[in-house]
Amino acid sequence: MSAGADGGGAAAARSREGSSAKDGFVPSALGTREHWDAVYERELQTFQEYGDTGEIWFGEESMNRLIKWMQKHKIPLDASVLDIGTGNGVFLVELAKFGFSNITGIDYSPSAIQLSGNIIEKEGLSNINLKVEDFLNLSTKLSGFHICIDKGTFDAISLNPDNAVEKRKQYVKSLSSVLRVKGFFLITSCNWTKEELLNEFSEGFELFEELPTPKFSFGGRSGNSVAALVFQKRETSWDNFR
Ligand SMILES: C[S@@+](CC[C@H](N)C(=O)[O-])C[C@H]1O[C@@H](n2cnc3c(N)ncnc32)[C@H](O)[C@@H]1O
């Protein structure tokens, strides 16, 4: 996984050498809460001292890509949007500046939520909901979202040293519980290919659109260093009874 512009260094995180799980990654500190707490405590301090908002994962381009998709599909500005693992909350700021009025950011790192709050306040924005929440163990009744966004969070969870396979399954369950039927899930990943993501989210979700991302070519092979997909939540027989 890599911060910054699309693709930079992403290949390093794709390595599965030494992984014990056949469909997993080499476990890494990037999959732990301790890591993210330390990252955002540092970024919070830097913001307080210098006003620097910190890393934008996958770069500005990744945010523009998502907002462009929302524009193209005429997503109403009052649609409810959940940013899963919002980090410094810069994407929430972009959404609010664009005019979205019903946005929520969650992160399991209290420092990330504090940093997001500080940045939002400095931007003079209000009406953005922020919550410290572990997406794999949701404590409150978050549900009924029209749109869920994930930029790098599923990637981080996939690197958890403690039973990442189960955690990925729990992620899909949590996503099902927060997203409304026919709602959209927009995921940007540098750890998973399009085909792998289709497999991960095959239960309950179908591919709606693949968003264009930069291509790389190396040693006669070419591909995308980042996958950006839009899934739509299927209507299931269970949903009919809710
Ligand atoms: C790679 S960073 C991406 C941050 C942000 N989405 C962005 O694009 O800048 C991954 C984020 O996911 C958060 N995260 C990881 N696991 C989480 C979980 N189980 N619940 C909530 N947040 C989580 C981390 O704290 C971190 O903020």
UniProtKB/TrEMBL annotation:
This protein's name: EEF1A lysine methyltransferase 2
Lineage: Eukaryota, Metazoa, Chordata, Craniata, Vertebrata
Gene that produces this protein: EEF1AKMT2
Keywords: Cytoplasm, Methyltransferase, Nucleus, S-adenosyl-L-methionine, Transferase
GO-annotated molecular function: protein-lysine N-methyltransferase activity
A Gene Ontology cellular-component term: cytoplasm
Pfam families the record matches: Methyltransf_31 (PF13847)
Signal sequence coordinates: none
Similarity comment: Belongs to the class I-like SAM-binding methyltransferase superfamily. EFM4 family.
Top class in the EC scheme: transferase
